[in-house]
Description:
32% of the residues lie in helices and 19% in strands. The chain is of the alpha/beta class.
Amino acid sequence: IEIMEREKLDGLIAQLPVNSYYLSGYWGLFNTPTGYDGSYFALLPRDPAAPAALIVPALEIRRLETEKHKGAGTWMEHVYAYSDVADAGGDAVLLEDDTVRGGDYAGWPVADGAELTALEQDWCAVTQRMGKQMSPDAFQALTRAIRAAGLEQGVLGTDDARTADWLKDCQLDKLTTSYRPQLFNEIRLVKTETEIEILRKAAHINEMSLLVAADSMCEGSTWNELENMYMMSMAQQGGRGVYLMCGVGELPAGKVRKGEPVFFDALGQYRHYHGDFGRCAVVGEPSAEHRKRHAHLLIGWEEAQTMLQSGVRYSELSAAVGAAVRKAGLKNFRDPVVHSVGLEHTDDPKPCGVQPQTKADQVLAPNMIVNIDMPHTEIGWGSIHMEDTVRITTYGFERLSETDMRIRIAGD
């Protein structure tokens, strides 16, 4: 609310999956990388007395009932659903709020004489209650929500530049939409207690899955084999793997070689929140040079621990850690990346179309969840890495990562 007041916005419209989920608490069935565009919206008015609303496809109304039975789903009382264009044979039929009515939604048929479970009864009830209150598309359903909140003449921040065009035929001539995607990231920077617990779990299962993959490494392993091991471990623990990487170019010889320093960087999800973790590993005994360079990273981590506190800027932390590693002896080490982690791998406000990890500098604050990302590759020698997740507290920090900092010796 404070950010909306500062930006003189009357509310927010979220269309991107991470933002509609953040505002509503509901992740739509089709919110996938290859899902349907513009299918879900969440409306959050600045005025707490105005109704917030979730917009979903018609088939989702049953799934929302299922989520209620689990004690989950959206907190938003107003849900507007849409089906398709009504076959009226003439002029458009209007709903009670004077928005266009869509085709009725009957859902799946019910077996004659069946004894329905409590959940099935609720499926039937919600279909009966909402089936004749459908809009023809998501934009008309969003219009209903905007009108119900009294925001027809308001200024609404959006995370999708197409929102104004989508609403142009919805009789909202006095509505102003402002494309402000970075505001959503700013709002998400400081985590709630619920988010912190989810992120704690995400960090744990992602970390354990990386270690399973690293410990399975042997001479001749391909990266696909190691990544598959990571993905299986994530799924077994209730998570979903995003990637396991050893550097953007992957293994220089195509397979793991004995004595070669390899870095592991794992990104995975649990309940849509990310875990991000990195360590270095080797098949066989690490060389003296490997141990020395790894010790340089440890000195960087020691420096990081002195600065992980509220009020410190990302840039200050990154520069201090980089300087400490170079002073220790790793002369060509680049300053590490400091980034927020949450519903996105990099949860910070960031511009579009730029090199990944390009973002505005941030100041650490209590309950921010951040990563210190310290990879180092030398072509012709190998790669080392150290990355941990921490929660910023009032007086310092708490590690969400659990594993020690030693080199992982495969099979050890």
